[in-house]
Amino acid sequence: MSLLEQQLAAGRFVVTAEIAPPKGTDVASALATARAFAGVMAVNVTDNQGANMRMCPLAVAALLVREGIEPILQLTCRDRNRMALQSDLLGASALGVENVLVLSGDHARFGDHPGAKSVFDLDSVQLLQVVNGLMAGHDMAGKPLAGIPRFFAGAAVTPEAEPFELMFQKFAKKVENGARFFQTQAVFDAVKLERFIAVARPLGVPVLLGVLLLKNARMARFLNDNIPGVRVPAQLIDRLEQAARPLDEGVAIAREMVAAARLHCQGVHLMTLGCEERIPEILGM
Amino acid sequence: MIISEQKSKEELLQVLDGKTRLFLVGCAACATACKAGGEEEVFKVQEWLASIGKEVTGSVVIDEACHIMRAARDLRQHKGQVEEAEALLVLACGAGIQSISSSTDQRVIGGLNSLFLGNIRRFGQYEEKCSLCGECILNETAGICPVTTCAKGLLNGPCGGMEEGKCEADREIDCAWHLIFERLKKQGRPGVFRRPVPPKDWGKKRKPGRHSIR
After folding, report:
1. pLDDT tens digits for chain B (214 residues)?
2. Min distance A158 CA to chain B CA atoms (Å)
3. Which of B137, B152, B179, B201 has the highest number of chain A CBs within 10 A, making it the mutation to test binding with A?
4. 3-class DSSP state for residue A271?
5. Domain coordinates of chain B in residue numbers?
6. What's the CATH number for B2-116?
7. In what order do the strands lie in the sheet with B2-6?
8. Could you tell me the residue range of the domain that residue A195 belongs to?
């Protein structure tokens, strides 16, 4: 059983963070970032995030395992068909990777290979079913596996998405089809978070709140304009604008979201984008 | 119908590869309707070719260029002009171009890019609604195809990029799943939301497709 699964089962407040594989073969800086995370229990390894080509997350996740750091392997449906997804999952298991975060994947149009053919042979709900099938000892074709993998599969949710009801039915479908934990898109609105948690809680699946460190007002506006599902309220942008040291204000905002997570969620997923040294402050350690 | 558009003049010049005597072929079906390769466009291309010093040995607009036998017959009827030409310039969709290329050993140059199977909103405005996937799910999705109109072709609801019911890949267009959700709600039925939709059987979309009604 992965540490993440154990801690969530034990009701501990869990902290995760993320690293991006390098564009190239030099993994030193990604691994150094992972090593330096303070108070973080498991580290997501992103999968060609934003549809920008990088080293495969499976390799980086395996390197983390070797370092004694627990990875959460992100696996998107954009770049692999059902055969590649299953073989990557089996490979992940052989390399000691247990946590997987199953995602649809950002559209290739916005990345650095806009001419790439997007795959989407499966969607995230179907991939969750596949993960569970592998754990039950068979592949999608029903063929038995020699050596059965063990995964702790999670999925993503955008609690602020509208229409809410439609977003929520997808969330519920992921739960029904084997999502054992959720990491959310960055949330900045505690009221909207509460609305989501009120209906999500009865489903009984741990939710790790996405907390993104805002570095300044410009970044907040950029997120609003360019990142799907992320909405920084005007009032927070004002705070960043008026602050003498915007990054400190961003840390304060992140702390508030962590505090909201302590009330409503089972953990946080931190996105600190190069300011990893501020994590202890954000966590109030 | 098949939506197509003419290649740019620059690209046409490139694909003409210095050939100076050309036989022109148009199509009276889809390529005419989307003003890419009908009578009028064949005439305009002919004028353009003349203006850049090319010779057009003749032309024909085939009723449906995708009809292999008909295309072959129409070419035979223009045998002399076809043989006189160094190449045939075809203003038809990819299917039409290949009816022609399978009917002659002469060099065939395609002058159009084929875009998609399209519905017509109004003249000159086309929308892709069906991608001919071989396994229709429309009865469950309130007559809105997610395979085609969801930018990711997702089968179990919207992705995390949906915002205010708009698509992640293009904020100008509605999220297909939002439309499906709203219409099913209006009809008072759960439809596709009743079950997890299993992975598509892409084996049903044979490549290359073949179908015989006998």
Report:
1. 999 999 999 999 999 999 999 999 999 999 999 999 999 999 999 999 999 999 999 999 999 999 999 999 999 999 999 999 999 999 999 999 999 999 999 999 999 999 999 999 998 999 999 999 999 999 999 999 999 999 999 999 999 999 999 999 999 999 999 999 999 999 999 999 999 999 999 998 888 998 899 7
2. 6
3. B152
4. strand
5. 2-116, 134-199
6. 3.40.50.1860
7. B2-6, B112-122, B125-128
8. 3-283
